[in-house]
Each structure stands twice: as C-alpha cells, then as structure tokens.
UniProtKB/TrEMBL annotation:
Biological pathway: Cofactor biosynthesis; molybdopterin biosynthesis
NCBIfam families (UniProt xref): moaA, PRK00164.2-1
InterPro entries in the record: Aldolase_TIM, Elp3/MiaA/NifB-like_rSAM, MoaA, MoaA-like, MoaA_NifB_PqqE_Fe-S-bd_CS, MoaA_twitch, MoCo_biosynth_MoaA/MoaC, rSAM
PANTHER family per record: MOLYBDENUM COFACTOR BIOSYNTHESIS PROTEIN 1, MOLYBDOPTERIN COFACTOR SYNTHESIS PROTEIN A
Keywords carried by this UniProt record: 4Fe-4S, GTP-binding, Iron, Iron-sulfur, Lyase, Metal-binding, Molybdenum cofactor biosynthesis, Nucleotide-binding, S-adenosyl-L-methionine
Name of this chain's protein: Molybdenum cofactor biosynthesis protein 1
The enzyme's E.C. designation: 4.1.99.22, 4.6.1.17
Cofactor(s) recorded in Swiss-Prot or TrEMBL: [4Fe-4S] cluster
Domain Radical SAM core: 64-298
PROSITE patterns with a match to the protein in the record: MOAA_NIFB_PQQE, RADICAL_SAM
Length: 385
C-alpha cells in the first residue's frame, strides 16, 4: 500500500539532512554492514520528529472516550451461499431491494472519505462478499487509496480458491475464512449446505499464494463443535494458520442461549490439558484477539472474547452495512444512513459531521450478553460481522 503523504515540515527536515550529508564534513569510518553512530542518531532523531509532529487523528473518527477508529468494515452484500445457524435465521431474512443497496461508486466514495480521515484498514464482509460480481474491481480500486495499508476480506471460502489469484493481484492483503467444523457431515448441518471441501481448498490456496497467517474463524457452540477444539489446534502444527475461536454471540434469529456459549477460559483450560506449554503471545494494540501458540507449531490460536471479556475499551472499528448504514458498535442497534445523505447530495463536510456525530454517541461498552440477547438488532448476515 502507498504510504501516507510526507508533511511539508518533515520534507524540509529530510532535505536538510540530505544537504548536510554533502557538506564535506568528515565521514566516520565503520565496518561494512554496521550502521554508523551518526546514522543511528539520525534515525533516532527522525523517529522522534515523526512522533512529535504526527498529524492529529481525525476528530470525526474519535469518540468521546478518546478511541480512534482507524478500521472500517464494509458489507458488500446481504446475500450468502450458505445458511449458517448462528448467522442467518432458519427461515431466511428479507433482503433489501437492490436499489437500496450501496452502489460500487458509493462504496468507494465512502471508503475514500474514511481513509482520508485516517482509516488505514478496510475489511470487506457480507453476507458473502465473494458472490458480489465486482469484488475484484472493488479491491483494486481500494488498493489505489493513499494511506490504506490493509485490505482484508472475511469469507466462507466457497469461492475463494477460484477468485484468490485475481484478488491477490488486485491488492488483497489479509484473509479470514469461516470454518466451524472439520467434519464434512457436521459442516452440512451447521451451514445447511454442502461445500466443506471447497472451503478446505480455499484455505490451502491461500497458503499456497503466501498469505500468512491465514485466519480461520470458528464459532464455538456447546453441543455442536466444542469437541473439535484440539483438532483445530492440531492444524496449526504444520500450517501457518491463526485459528480464532469465537464465543457464540446473540443476534436476531440465531436462537442464542447462554448455555450454548463456551467461554474463553473454558476453551483455554481444554487446550492447556493437552498442551500445558501453550504460551501467551503479545497482544497488538486494538486487537480483539487473545493469541496463544504451542511452541514449535507453525501457526497459532486466538480467542475472540466478546461475551466473557469484552474489549470495548480499545475498540477502533466502525461498520457500514450493505444498505449504507453506519454502525458504531457491533452490538448496538443505533444506525445512521450514509446512503440517504449521499443520495441527497450531502457534501464531504456534511457527511463528516454526520459521521462524527454518530461516532461521538458511541457508548463506553456494550450492555453485556444478557442485555444484548434481549435487544432488537439485525441478524449477523445483515450486519457484516
């Protein structure tokens, strides 16, 4: 991805450094391959300058608790070629008319606006984003945005092996693949469709093309797949995977029940019984995952603890639904339509005011699993995860 533009002040400092290097001053001798003391000091000065003169993060994307939202998730479609139990109600969902969904140009217009304000990571979701005919073109257009460092996609993997070479060429840099079981028959029960072997083919294609780690999202549900935790971890012995165990979360129509939820600590205890040496890895800032690794394994495992240990305090995520609504919290039911304002001819400044007002209303944390279960919200498939 292209780097952010260098500020005029920093350009002057760099030009000054170049002039000083050609001033005829004596050169300090040092061994080949070893940075000189002067070079080390100069690098240190430049880093200090960048820290002190970094452009302030957009006020429109900073909430009242100081959280800076640099990560945007955009749902490309409400449609999906699977019917996962925890995502879509058994009877299906009423889909938004095509005319009310964001067009490709509207998606790119909003993406440009958010990136200009400081978003440096965009993840494309759904529904199933890979059933959108112009998904490769969308990735290519996003790849041209200066300042955007990461373009990710979350997919069920059914179409991944076929499309990934084109997506990689277009600029896709990160992949999350949903897979809740390693048993083909159970796969069909969970997703109400066939396709297990296509998903596995997609995972191996991602590895073959050099994606590392390839993230595998597994929603753990008691009585359904909690008996496969060890099998998933075993996959990381020889493959560069990050298997992410996700606590079962309540959304409209997914028949959530507290008794079905397997907590992070319970899952971790199960893993430690098999691998007592399981080690905790450092957490990245704003990460939603608690990461662990079995020493000697190529990959790692992570836990998304949305229910038992929320990570609201460091949340840096915003979501745009396929019909153009901005959601500032996955579990909140408050939304604002950016689509309607776009189509009404709102200026960039007006859109930023609307976005800033929504971000400013974001709560400190979600209400807790039991309150969320009673709250009216969209089914997961209409949010985009």
């Amino acid at each position: 991805m292209a780097a952010r533009p260098v500020s005029r002040m920093l350009q002057r400092v760099l030009r000054s450094s170049v002039r000083s290097c050609s001033s005829g001053a004596p050169v300090t001798q040092h061994r080949p391959g070893e940075p000189s003391q002067t070079a080390v000091e100069e690098l240190s000065r430049r880093r200090q300058f960048l820290r002190e003169h970094a452009a302030p993060f957009s006020a429109f994307l900073t909430d009242s608790f100081g959280r800076q939202h640099s990560y945007l998730r955009i749902s490309l479609t409400e449609k999906c070629n699977l019917r996962c139990q925890y995502c879509m109600p058994e009877e299906g969902v009423p889909l938004t008319p095509k005319a009310d969904l964001l067009t490709t140009e509207e998606i790119l217009t909003l993406a440009r606006l958010f990136v200009k304000e400081g978003v440096d990571k965009i993840r494309l979701t759904g529904g199933e984003p890979l059933i959108r005919p112009d998904v490769v073109d969308i990735v290519a257009q996003l790849h041209r945005l200066e300042g955007l460092r990461t373009i990710g996609i979350t997919t069920n993997g059914i179409n991944l092996a076929r499309l990934l070479p084109q997506l990689q060429k277009a600029g896709l840099s990160a992949i999350n693949i949903s897979l809740d079981t390693l048993v083909p028959a159970k796969f069909e029960f969970i997703v109400r469709r066939k396709g297990f072997h296509k998903v596995m083919e997609g995972i191996h294609k991602a590895i073959e093309l050099g994606y590392s780690p390839v993230k595998v999202n597994c929603v753990v549900m008691r009585g359904l797949n909690e008996d496969e935790l060890l099998d998933f971890v075993a996959l990381t012995e020889g493959l560069p995977l990050d298997v992410r165990f996700i606590e079962y979360m309540p959304f409209d129509g997914n028949k959530w029940n507290f008794k079905k939820m397997v907590s992070y600590k319970e899952m971790l205890d199960t893993l430690r019984q098999q691998w007592p040496e399981l080690e905790k890895l450092p957490e990245e800032e704003s990460s939603t995952a608690k990461a662990f690794k079995v020493p000697g394994f190529r990959g790692q495992v992570s836990f998304i603890t949305s229910m038992s240990e929320h990570f609201c305090g460091t949340c840096n995520r915003l979501r745009i639904t396929a019909d153009g609504n901005l959601k500032v919290c996955l579990f909140g039911n408050s939304e604002v339509s950016l689509r309607d304002h776009l189509r009404a001819g709102a200026s960039e400044e007006e859109l930023l005011q609307i976005i800033g007002a929504a971000v400013g209303r974001k709560k400190r944390q979600h209400a807790g699993m039991f309150s969320i279960a009673q709250m009216k919200n969209r089914p997961m498939i209409l949010i985009g995860g």
